[in-house]
Amino acid sequence: MRVLKFGGTSVGTVESFRNVVQIISQKLKEDKIVVVISALAKVTDQLINSVEYAGQRNPEYKKIFAEIKSQHYEFVHELVSEEFQNDAKSKIDLILNELELKLESIFFLQEYSARVSDSIISSGERLSQIILTSALNSAGIKSKIIDAGKLIRTNDNFGQAEVDYDATDKLLAKAFRDSKRDCVEVLNGFTGSTAKGEPTTLGRSGSDYTATIVGSALNANVIEIWTDVDGILTADPRLVSDAIPLKTLSYQDAAELAFLGAKVIFPKAMEPVKFKNIPVLVLNTFQPAFEGTLINNEPEGNPYSIKSVTHMEDLSLITLSNLALDSDTHLLERIVRILKHQKWPSIFFNYSISQRSISVLTQTKKSIGLIDEIRDKLKNELDDRQIGNINLRNSLCLVSIIGNNSDNQIETMNKIFRTIEANHFKNILFFSCSEGRNHSFLFAETEAEKVVGAIHSTFLNEFINTNVA
Predict the structure, then answer these.
(1) Are 233 and 308 in contact (CB under 8 A)?
(2) What superfamily would CATH give domain 309-468?
(3) How many angstroms separate the CA atoms of 274 and 297, rounded?
(4) Beta-bridge mates of residue 296
(5) Domains of the chain: which residue ranges?
(6) Backbone angles phi, psi at 458, to 5 degrees
(7) Which residues of 282-296 are buried (b: 16+ CB within 10 A; e: fewer)?
(8) Closest Cα partner for 284 from 241, 320, 248, 230?
(9) What is the CATH number of domain 2-228?
(10) CA separation for the pair 399, 377 (Å, rounded)
(11) What are the pLDDT digits (tens) for 1-51?
């Protein structure tokens, strides 16, 4: 068995959707197939915007809803034969009617919970799931809908739900007990539910995670993540024109890449498969013959320690400085509790004894809420001058070097600092993981492209030239 996951860009147009049907048809000749599908491209963003507009009593949400409805009707008309169109439209209408009622309720009440938001945002996957099964049936391929929301058990941390693997594995095993070789089961990605049956979501781009959860539970031979690039690259091709796909990558490095800015795969996606050593292939829907990137336990092919240079933009650094010497441990404990309450908004956390400071790197959109809570929860410490200042610096970019061998740290660091110095980059802060495999540096966002290009050239040009030759 193999699990195929198709992202939003893979089903973003009618033509790309046809490519997906063709890929599934070819794969079905070789193996038993289970498919995980994302929402159509940009639909999740539209749903998020519609919730926000409705909550602000802005009638613009109605326009967005109409666009979503029109787009899905168009896909049904183009992809589904007349024999299956009425059934597909009927199923889509049920979801859209439910969605419209929820948005109207938010509009009139001007409030909504994270639970309600998750139930709305996860609608996109359910809609594309209907279109895909109908398109497959139209092509003569037996298929049926499996609601992943009822099978992936999570806690009630809406928006970033944590999975209960034991309960989920049992539910999935039971659901697929009578699975037939010639029938393609299609699951909606990104979605789970609490023990009470409340819909949850696994985090943005969480359909990758759905695929590996399902693949692990069913002991799949391989999991294929189909996207719009030729695999995982040595850098973002928008910044580095000569970046190339990696042939292989370890689970650990793939997870680090995802967490530190690479958008090809979801950060948590490696968790369910790494202990079972189930291989994950990252493939291009638009170039299905390309070999892509293989993620497993023992990668081969890249003789160099550094695998990729990645980056994250739109970051903010919050710094608590001039800390009282006798309150450092106390403050650390308090701040860790605040971060936990904020549901992990931090990307890096840095504590400097010598500088008597604590720094938290977070997404800019979350920085104000985090600062407000720090000021509220640490009011006494601020009033007593145990904390001298709270500073905020915006428009930052984190550049990370992934995959360094732990016994090669000194040479790697020397190369990095020589590159920074030679190019006159102004490094703001340095972070390193405990094993020394990955190193990250903070720069002004305006320097992102130059920094990524220079470091990529320093570490990966020889590897690229060898592989392209």
Answers:
(1) yes
(2) VC0802-like (3.30.2130.10)
(3) 7
(4) 250
(5) 2-228, 309-468
(6) -60, -45
(7) bbbbbeeeeebbbbb
(8) 230
(9) 3.40.1160.10
(10) 32
(11) 999 999 999 999 999 999 999 999 999 999 999 999 999 999 999 999 999
